[in-house]
Each structure stands twice: as structure tokens, then as C-alpha cells.
Design a protein that fits this description.
The structure holds two protein chains of two kinds.
Chain A (H helix, E strand, L loop, with lengths): L1 H19 L8 E8 L4 H20 L3 E8 L2 H15 L3 E4 L4 H13 L3 E5 L11 E5 L1 H15 L5 E6 L4 H14 L5 E7 L4 H14 L5 E3 L3 H14 L6 E3 L5 H8 L8 E2 L5 H14 L6 E5 L3 E2 L15
Parallel strand pairs in A: 1-2, 1-3, 3-4, 4-5, 5-11, 6-7, 6-8, 8-9
Antiparallel strand pairs in A: 10-12
Helix pairs in contact in A: 1-10, 2-10, 3-4, 5-6, 7-8
Chain B lengths: L2 H36 L6 H26 L7 H23 L3 H27 L5 H19 L4 E3 L2 H7 L1 H4 L1 E2 L2 E2 H19 L1 H11 L1 H6 L4 H27 L1 E3 L6 H11 L11 H21 L7 H22 L1
Helix pairs in contact in B: 1-13, 1-14, 2-8, 2-9, 2-11, 2-12, 2-13, 3-4, 3-5, 3-11, 4-5, 4-11, 8-9, 9-11, 12-13, 13-14
The chains are: A alpha/beta, B mainly alpha.
């Protein structure tokens, strides 16, 4: 519901802005949006929300045009950004850097030309380039899960952890998780990389299950991985023995939480709709006097059977 | 021929036999011993079944790849193709539920769709390579991108999931089996045996080797080069379809991240097994050993956690290179 209210307020502000900006109506703006292509469930959701938001904002503010580019790798993204500046004369850029390092200087060049820059999710390696930074809370994501484990397990209980692709983002989550369970007496048997991939997670979990006779819970750290983990557990017929916590907010998982599945008691959000926040705020900054400079960190929330309904988007592909 | 030359000839044969055939096998045995020492559960029925069943996808594809590589070709598109076939299969099966109802016939239809899609995809690669005469590397690099994008597009960037009831019915194809041996393992074994028979005892197998060794000579020897070459890609495509039939019931879904890098794993398995990358000589049994080596490395690293998981890739790389060094060492010494 948070997203909705945010939207509503944005729209309200938009309505106000259109009336005040009616005088300067003929001034039009172009916003460039550069995001990675939909190669993973999370990015699929992000692409979906980006397209949806662009359609909505274009309708609300007819004077704003969008250029959307999706890239499969960092160098294609650099080209996209350069093309946007050179040929489309953009007024603002919303970018989710594929990788921080290679995108830093191209985006810096954009900012130096006086173009508004909004960076989403992954920070650039030099600070202070962007005007607005919108991101999920990675340490919060790990801490939230860790706190749930610490509260719901007893001293001496055993857990296994599946990690994502080795990146800073993954490290931040895992470090916060470890800090949150510290002192609770929970025993982490092993951590292995499941690369945010269902098949890899399935294999890793199969091996965990053959190796350990006593596992009380699994931190799968991602809903795609949770799907693979659950399948491996059911193959071994050990559903009764352990529960699983994923993360991100995939609709299938949210539905199971909503239905009160004992195997997936909760989920931790890391919303792909953060791209909507970034686009809306950028548009708002262009058309109105609303100050939108700074950082906007979207807190991770714990999805429980009680509140799951507000995180369930059946139309989203993710 | 003097006795001396015959002796050297025999010695060379012996050496080649030893290291070509036994190299990968020794590596496999060493890995099995290592695994058994590191973890008592390694040789348990459950773990052995897991490893063999998960090897089956890459294994079935790698056997097809052995023919393609033996005939001097390469196919980089198999991973994307598997994802695409899985996507098409899931969508068709979901779409046919109202017409056919959830039942065995629908699953059989789904399997036929997978095989046909694989067949067609392989045919497309094969025709572009042998009739239009484009480099295999380029054609399959192109189709790799095409299939990967198509499956992402079909799934709208998300995941295609098989209908829940249908999946319940289809699930035993991966998880159940005959006499305690699960179906993927049985299918993998049958494909390997048939592959060996075709490679060693049919004209097609000999034609593949002939084309890979020297295309001109093969052409002059009245081998229908274009047809045989196309056939290797069609065979591989169909086997990708077969692997997908085993893959879909496992998680009941396909997405843009299905089958990523399967092509490289399949190619690596073929080369570890002693098939020559530039063609002319192929060993099906070697490929089977290669596939097992690759999946055992992963399994052992997960079971033992002796090194940082960051180094898993490095360990794999070292074992792959060592396995190939073992079989090549003496050959260069000749």
C-alpha cells in the first residue's frame, strides 16, 4: 500500500503542478531511463514497473516524454546513456547502473552537462554525482531476516544460508544478517552461493540436505532461490523439519505467506517498484518546485500473513 | 614392416589408449575417492541419485554435442535453446488445459511439443550452417541470443510456471523412476548407449568423424557432407528437447535465467572426455565421464566446504584443465 499512497501523493502533487505550470505548458521535458534488461525475476519486475510508471507519468504530465533503454551489459548501458544525451537531448536521466565502476564516468559526464541525474539501487563509485539516489535497504534486508531468525529459533538450532552472486550488495546483506543473529546461539552450518538462481539453489540445497541431518531453517535470501530450495526439501521429504525465508517479494511466495504456509512463514521485501519511486520523483522535480534532491532509501519490510495482501501484485510478472 | 616399427606402433597405441581413455576416468575415480574421504554421505544412495539426476540434462545435451564437435562444428545455442523449448512447452501445455484437461495425454503432447521445438531449432541451425554456409560459431552465437531473448519475452521478463495440478501429475518424471533409479538417469544411460552405438557402429558416426577430420576428403569419398552435418545439429536439438522434458518437471518453470552457460558446460564435458575440439574424433563414454566430473566437483565443494565459496570457480577450472592435461601429456611426448 506504501507504493500506492506514494503514487497518490505524487499524482496529487502532479495535479497541483500542472495547474501552476499551466502557464509554462509549452515547455516540454525528456527523461531518459536506463535499466538492465529482464534477465532475472527481480529485473523482470523492475522492467514491468518501469514501463507501467512511464505510461502513467506520460499521461499525467503530457509535457514529459520518456526514452527507455534496457541493456544486457555495462558497455551497452554506457552507449545507451551517451546516445540519450547526444541524440535525444534529455533533461533528466534515471539510471540503474549495471555495474558501478564502468558507469561512473559516463554518468558523471552527463551530470556535468547540467542534466538531472537520478541513480537507482546501485550507487556509483564516486560520491556526489547524482542529484537523487533511490535504493532499497540492503543491510536492512539482511537485518530484518536475521532478526526474524533470532526471534523464532532457539539456542543451538541449525540453519543453512544461500548467498547470491558474489557482490558488495550480497556481502552487505549477509553481514547484516550475521550481525542480527549474533549472540542468539543459532548455529550457521554453511553458506554457499546459489547465484539468485532457482536451479543452482536447488542443487546447493540438495547437497546441504545430504550433508546435514538436522537443519531447522534456511535463509534463501531471494525468492527465486527459495523456490529451488523448497523443491529440494520436498524431494527429500523433510518439509516438516525446517522453514525457509526468501526475499524480494515474488508474487508466488507472497501468496504462500498470505495463505499461512508453515514452510514460508514470512518474506522480506526488496521492492522492484523502487524504479517507480525514482521515475515519479524525477518527473515531479522537473515539472514542479517540489524539492527532490537527496537520498530516498526504501526500507525493507517484513511480510507476514497479516499484511501480505498489500504486497501482492498479481499482474506483475514477478 | 619390420618388427621394430610394429613395436613402436603398438607402444604408441598403448600410450594413446592409456591416456586418452584412462585420463578422464582416473580423474573421475580420484574425485570419487576424495569425496568419500571428505564426507561419509557422499556415496549414500540419496547423494549419488541427486548427482546423477542433475547431470542428466547437461549429459543428454553433451552427447548430442559430441556428434556436432566430432563433425568439426560447435553449438553455442543449446542453453538458450533449452530455456526456449521449456518456455514453449510450458505455455502450450497451460494453453491446452481447457481443451484437453489435466491428464497423461496432455503431458505426452507436451513432450512431443518439446521434441518438435528442439528438432526445429536444431534444423534451423543446421540448415544455416550447411546450406547457407555461415560459420557454426556465428550462427549459434546468433541463435543463442535469439532464443534467450525470446524466452525472456515470452515470460514478460518474469517466470513461466506450469499449471499447479499439471505439475503434480508431471513431477514423477523427474523424481520417480524404475527400481529406485530415477527417470533422468535411465534416459541419460539409454541416450549414452545409443550414442555410442551410433558413433561406433553406423555410417553416420563414421561420416561425422570423416567430416571433422577433413571435409574435402569426406566429400570426395561420397559422404553427403551437408546432410550429415545438418543431421548432427538436428540430433543435438532433439536431445535438447529431450533434456527439457526431464528438466521441466523438476521446478515446473522456465525463465530468462534457465540454462545459462549450459552450452559451455556441455562443450567442456565433451573436451574433458577426449573428443578433439577441432573435430575428427569423438568419444561418447568420455563425454559421460566429463559430465560426471563437472557435476561431482560442484557436489564435493558443497559437501565439504573446504575452501571459500568464492573459489569454487577456480577449483572447477583447475580440475577441468588437469583432466585434459592428464590425457594430452604423453601424446605430445610422442
Amino acid at each position: 500500500m506504501k507504493r500506492r499512497t506514494l503514487l497518490k501523493s505524487a499524482m496529487l502533487a502532479g495535479a497541483l503542478a500542472t495547474t501552476t505550470a499551466a502557464v509554462a505548458q509549452d515547455e516540454s521535458y525528456t527523461i531518459g531511463v536506463a535499466i538492465p534488461s529482464a534477465t532475472h525475476g527481480f529485473m523482470g519486475g523492475l522492467n514491468f514497473h518501469a514501463r507501467e510508471t512511464i505510461a502513467r507519468v506520460e499521461e499525467t504530465y503530457p509535457q514529459i516524454n520518456f526514452v527507455l533503454a534496457t541493456a544486457g551489459d555495462a558497455s551497452k548501458m554506457v552507449n545507451d546513456v551517451e546516445d540519450m544525451v547526444a541524440t535525444r537531448d534529455i533533461d533528466a536521466l534515471v539510471v540503474l547502473p549495471f555495474e558501478s565502476e564502468p558507469l561512473t564516468s559516463p554518468v558523471q559526464a552527463v551530470a556535468e552537462q547540467g542534466i538531472w541525474v537520478t541513480v537507482v539501487d546501485r550507487g556509483l563509485s564516486v560520491e556526489g554525482i547524482e542529484d537523487l539516489y533511490v535504493a532499497g535497504d540492503n543491510p536492512g534486508f539482511g537485518r530484518m531476516a536475521g532478526e526474524y531468525f533470532a526471534e523464532n529459533l532457539e539456542e543451538g538450532d541449525n540453519i543453512v544460508v544461500l548467498r547470491g552472486i558474489p557482490t558488495t550488495l550480497d556481502n552487505e546483506r549477509v553481514e547484516a544478517f550475521e550481525a542480527a543473529i549474533e549472540g542468539s546461539g543459532i548455529n550457521v552450518l554453511d553458506m554457499q552461493h546459489g547465484n539468485w538462481n532457482r536451479d543452482d539453489a536447488f542443487n546447493v540445497m540438495q547437497d546441504f540436505l545430504s550433508r546435514y541431518d538436522d537443519i531447522d531453517a534456511v535463509w534463501a535470501a531471494d525468492d527465486d532461490m527459495a523456490v529451488g530450495v523448497l523443491e529440494a526439501i520436498s524431494q527429500a521429504g523433510r518439509e516438516e523439519e525446517m522453514w525457509v525465508v526468501g526475499g524480494a517479494g515474488m508474487k508466488e511466495i507472497i501468496r504462500r505467506v498470505m495463505e499461512g504456509d508453515p514452510q514460508i512463514p514470512v518474506d522480506v521485501t526488496y521492492p522492484p517498484a523502487q524504479i517507480s519511486t525514482a521515475i515519479e520523483l524525477t518527473a515531479l522535480g522537473l515539472v514542479s518546485n517540489t524539492p527532490v534532491t537527496g537520498e530516498f532509501i526504501i526500507g525493507s519490510q517484513l511480510v507476514t500473513p497479516e499484511n501480505a495482501e498489500q504486497f501482492y501484485f498479481p499482474d506483475s510478472p514477478f | 614392416m619390420t618388427e621394430a616399427t610394429m613395436n613402436t606402433q603398438r607402444k604408441i597405441n598403448l600410450r594413446r589408449f592409456n591416456f586418452h581413455v584412462l585420463g578422464p576416468l582416473l580423474a573421475l575415480i580420484a574425485l570419487i575417492i576424495l569425496g568419500a574421504l571428505l564426507n561419509p554421505n557422499f556415496l549414500s544412495y540419496g547423494n549419488v541419485t541427486n548427482v546423477l539426476a542433475r547431470s542428466a540434462f547437461i549429459g543428454i545435451i553433451a552427447i548430442g554435442m559430441t556428434f556436432v564437435i566430432t563433425a568439426g562444428g560447435i553449438d553455442l545455442s543449446v542453453g538458450s535453446m533449452a530455456a526456449f523449448v521449456a518456455g514453449v512447452m510450458i505455455m502450450c501445455m497451460n494453453a491446452l488445459i481447457p481443451a484437453m484437461g489435466v491428464g497423461i495425454p496432455l503431458i505426452v503432447v507436451g513432450m512431443c511439443i518439446a521434441l518438435l521445438t528442439g528438432f526445429a531449432a536444431g534444423m534451423l541451425n543446421g540448415v544455416l550452417i550447411s546450406k547457407v554456409k555461415i560459420e557454426a560459431f556465428i550462427v549459434t552465437l546468433g541463435s543463442m541470443g535469439i532464443y534467450r531473448s525470446l524466452v525472456t519475452w515470452l515470460a514478460d521478463g518474469g517466470t513461466l510456471s506450469l499449471n499447479f495440478d499439471l505439475r503434480g501429475l508431471y513431477r514423477p518424471v523427474y523424481y520417480d523412476g524404475l527400481l529406485g533409479i530415477s527417470w533422468p538417469i535411465i534416459v541419460f544411460a539409454v541416450v549414452a548407449i545409443l550414442g555410442e552405438l551410433i558413433m561406433r557402429h553406423t555410417a553416420f558416426g563414421r561420416h561425422c568423424a570423416a567430416i571433422g577430420a577433413n571435409e574435402q576428403v569426406a566429400r570426395y569419398s561420397a559422404v553427403n557432407v551437408d546432410r550429415s552435418r545438418t543431421a548432427t545439429y538436428v540430433l543435438l536439438g532433439t536431445l535438447v528437447g529431450l533434456a527439457t522434458i526431464m528438466y521441466v518437471p523438476r521446478l515446473g518453470s522456465a525463465s530468462g535465467s534457465t540454462g545459462v552457460l549450459w552450452e559451455l558446460e556441455a562443450i567442456a564435458a565433451v573436451i574433458i572426455g577426449g573428443t578433439v575440439l577441432k573435430g575428427g574424433y569423438g568419444r561418447i563414454w568420455g563425454t559421460v565421464v566429463g559430465v560426471l566430473i563437472l557435476s561431482l566437483i560442484d557436489n564435493i565443494l558443497n559437501l565439504a566446504s573446504i575452501v571459500s565459496p568464492y573459489l569454487n570457480g577456480a577449483i572447477q577450472g583447475v580440475v577441468v584443465i588437469l583432466a585434459v592435461v592428464l590425457q594430452r601429456e604423453r601424446k605430445t611426448a610422442d
